[in-house]
Design goal:
By secondary structure, this protein is α+β, with helices and mostly antiparallel strands. It contains seven helices and four strands. It has one domain: Nucleoside diphosphate kinase-like domain (Alpha-Beta Plaits, 2-Layer Sandwich).
């Protein structure tokens, strides 16, 4: 099974979309194996968004991500990275496909509700930023409920 990191950003929490967002992942059959509410500080922002720190938009991104609580989750499933990115939709909410989280709830490029890891390498790095091995809970469910045709 593959794992990925999802962050529900401060704008989604302020708009009270947390339950809606989490339920979309659950209804798709993805398994939540870790979850907590955190508050970004400047150090965590710089670590998480290290590839953007020297870009002109970074100061606004840091101000936004440190402005309120964030819910961090680790999801697990078959091809979970690609599946989550499809569910989340394009970065620009105005261009995101209707039916995706951003397509249904965001009209912004920078205030786009959710972060999702974009590769296996990113997922591994990002999960370690937010969760220790002890915080990840491995639990079983009947695989035939979600994966019967894949395995």
């Amino acid at each position: 099974m593959e794992r990925t990191l999802v962050l529900i950003k401060p704008d989604a929490i302020r708009r009270e979309l947390v339950g809606e967002i989490i339920s979309r992942f659950e209804r798709k059959g993805l398994k939540i194996i870790a979850m907590k509410m955190i508050k970004f500080d400047e150090k965590l922002s710089k670590e998480h968004y290290k590839e953007h720190v020297n870009k002109p938009f970074y100061p606004d991104l840091e101000k936004f991500i440190t402005s309120g609580p964030v819910i961090a989750m680790v999801l697990e499933g078959v091809e979970v990275i690609e599946t989550v990115r499809t569910l989340v939709g394009s970065t620009n909410g105005r261009k995101a496909t209707p039916g995706s989280i951003r397509g249904d709830f965001s009209t912004s490029f920078s205030r786009n509700l959710v972060h999702a890891s974009d590769s296996k390498d990113s997922a591994a790095r990002e999960i370690k930023l937010f969760f220790s091995d002890k915080e990840i809970v491995n639990w079983d469910r009947p695989k035939e409920l979600y994966y019967a045709s894949d395995e």
